[in-house]
Amino acid sequence: VGEFDLIKHYFVQGANSIGPINREPITLGIGDDCALLAPLIDEQWAVSTDMFIEGRHFFAGTAAYDIGYKALAVNLSDLAAMGAKPIAFTLALALPDNNPLFLQEFSRGLFALASQHNCHLIGGDTTRGPLNICITVFGSIANDQALRRDRAQVGDDVWVSGSLGAAAWAVREQTARLASLEALSSTLQNGLLEAAQNKLLRPTPRVALGLALRGVAHSALDLSDGLSGDLAHIAQSSMVAIEINCACLPISPEIAHLLPDQQLQLACVGGDDYELAFTAPRSARATIEKLSQSLDTSLSRIGNVVSQNKNNGAVRFLDAARKPLAAEIVAQWHSFQHFS
Ligand code: ADP
Ligand code: MG
Questions:
Q1: E strands present in the chain
Q2: Alpha-carbon distance 274 to 77, whole Å?
Q3: In 153-298, at which residue ranges do the beta strands (DSSP E only) sit?
Q4: 267 CA → ligand 1 middle, Å
Q5: Residue whose C-alpha is closest to residue 301's, from 322, 271, 320, 278
Q6: Which of 52, 139, 261, 307 has the greatest number of CB atoms lying within 10 Å of its CB?
Q7: What is the pLDDT of residues 171-199, one digit of tens each?
Q8: What is the whole-number distance in angstroms between the Cα of residue 31 and the centre of ligand 2?
Q9: Structure pTM?
Q10: Atom of ligand 1 at shortest distance to CA of 126?
Q11: β-sheet with 219-222: strand ranges across
């Protein structure tokens, strides 16, 4: 099949499988030189791009379904973090060959998630090359409702959705196995590892949560690189300091069998969780707890936004006695951050 047949077969049909595009604000989808979008007057558009490269963002040999799913999931997670409603996406795809089985499964994973969020494929580009997927998502948000990183306020609580550490554990185990090091986990833990791998490959973008947090949270972001580094973005752009109570961190059940400091390390600097971290005033506590129930998503209050003048921009981790963890411990976490 040529390029045009391939697009038509796997992507136009796929796009149509979530219904004809007669949805505002999409005026024209795939097929012309450009797609046409007509945003409403009183809204802003949130736009984000993420590349997804074999060997860099996912292991060679990852199932095609999971590649399609996750390439879109990480982009939807950015919309969620901004409080934006998904509308559409474009797909730039480099493929080493025209493997029909790969394309079939890839588009199945992609559209499974796209249809869940009513997010339409409106265009893209297809070329031969090392496997590389680049998606750009478009979302809408009422004027001035976006959840930005630079709006945290002193006195805010810090919250995180879901649980942390499982995906990073799956990466660590798989990296160790590929390096033919001794597996770090025993076969007894294979069930846990499988569950952790599911979280790594099929993260749930917290779109409904992001939408519900508009007007409630002061600031938000999604956790792709790890809690510590990601919260530092909020601290720096809001010019505040953040204190995290380690005892309040929602550690993923899949890693509960590890030593406590390994659990803490994976939860604080391991990435790939795609949960939302956000700050909100104390007055929003009851609202957030209700949200947790109505969305059936656990939300944990893990720390506080504080002002520390010269320490602004910093994230500090406190132990159960509210004493800062020793600098060496935190430095050591970071030195093991890149497991490869
Ligand atoms: P052009 O050469 O004008 O850029 P292309 O031949 O690359 O157009 O693409 C033809 C149409 O197919 C365009 O509307 C483009 O957006 C769409 N398209 C190409 N590749 C993809 C893809 N991987 N997914 C979705 N749409 C695609
Ligand atoms: Mg083109």
A1: 26-28, 36-37, 43-53, 85-95, 120-128, 132-142, 157-161, 219-222, 241-245, 276-280, 299-306, 315-318
A2: 6
A3: 157-161, 219-222, 241-245, 276-280
A4: 40
A5: 278
A6: 139
A7: 999 988 888 766 556 666 889 999 999 99
A8: 10
A9: 0.93
A10: 20
A11: 219-222, 276-280, 157-161, 299-306, 241-245, 315-318
- What residues pair up with 49 in beta bridges, in sequence order? 136
Rounded Cα gap, residues 234 and 305, in angstroms = 10
End-to-end CA distance of the chain: 38
| CA max distance for the chain | 65
Least confident of 13-22, 63-72, 133-142, 246-255: 13-22
For a substitution probing ligand 1, which of 111, 125, 137 has the most ligand atoms within 8 Å of its CB?
Answer: 125
How many angstroms separate the CA atoms of 87 and 117, rounded?
A: 8
Enclosing H/E stretch for 24: none
Q: How many residues does the chain have?
A: 340
